[in-house]
Amino acid sequence: MNRRLLIGLLLVQTATLAAQSGKDNPVAVVVSGPRAGDRAPDFSLPWSTRDVTGGDPWFSLSAQRGRVVVVAFYPRDFTSGCTAEMKTFADQHADLFGEDVVVVGISTDSLSTHRRFAEELGLPFRLLSDPDQAVSKRYGSADPGGYNRRTVYVVGRNGKVAYSDRQFGALDPKAYERLKQAVQAARREGAGS
Questions:
Q1: Annotated catalytic residue, options 82, 111, 121, 127
Q2: Less crowded by CB within 10 Å, the N or C end of the chain?
Q3: Three-class secondary structure of residue 150 per DSSP
């Protein structure tokens, strides 16, 4: 097991134990996950859109090889920050991503909740369900409380992480500008290969 992963696991376990013991002592939690240049961990998850509940086949990251993929982990459907983030992704989709970029949102919500959320916001992309946080944990996005932290990854055409924002600011215009620049860089990097 690599050292960075082991340290991250120990700190998360320590935070969980402190929370369970009822102590109010602050505990630092290191957010781990793949970094730029690392191979993005593959995953396969069920999905919904505004028109489909539980689409088949499941969404698989490896099936997207050759395309730029934005993977956005978020806490919950229908909450204020998540609504703001996903609505911005939808409203600025052409400017932020373009039609050739695959965008997926991942939370612990059910497929039926995802469909209602996507329908209400008019989302033009898939929402993936990760109820046990198996994928979220691999990306350092799982919060010990059972929800995802708001993190965003850009995966290049080569399957490697091109960009990560481990504290994506749903209400910060600069966060969207950095994401847009990262997507554009990933598109340029893979062009012509």
A1: 82
A2: N
A3: coil
The string of pLDDT tens digits covering residues 106-132 is: 999 999 999 999 999 999 999 999 999
Burial 99-133 (b: 16+ CB within 10 A, else e): eebbbbbbbbbbbebbbbbbeebebebbbbbbeeb
Q: Residues 19-38, buried b or exposed e (16+ Cβ, 10 A)?
A: eeeeeeeeeeeebbbbeeee
| pLDDT for position 123 | 97
In the numeric block, which tokens belong to residue 2?
């690599």
The answer to whether 29 touches 9, Cβ cutoff 8 Å, is: no
d(Cα 93, Cα 175) in Å, to the nearest integer? 15
Q: Would you call 82 a catalytic residue per the annotation?
A: yes
By C-alpha distance, which of 129, 127, 64 is closest to 101? 64
Q: What is the pLDDT of residues 65-84, one digit of tens each?
A: 999 999 999 999 999 999 99
Interhelix angle 111-121/80-91, nearest 10 degrees: 60
How many angstroms separate the CA atoms of 83 and 69, rounded?
A: 21
Could you state, in order of their start, the residue ranges of all structural domains in the chain? Answer: 1-30, 34-190
* CATH placement of domain 34-190: 3.40.30.10
pTM of the complete model: 0.83
Nearest residue to 148 (alpha-carbon basis) of 181, 112, 104 = 104
Tokens of 40: 């993005």
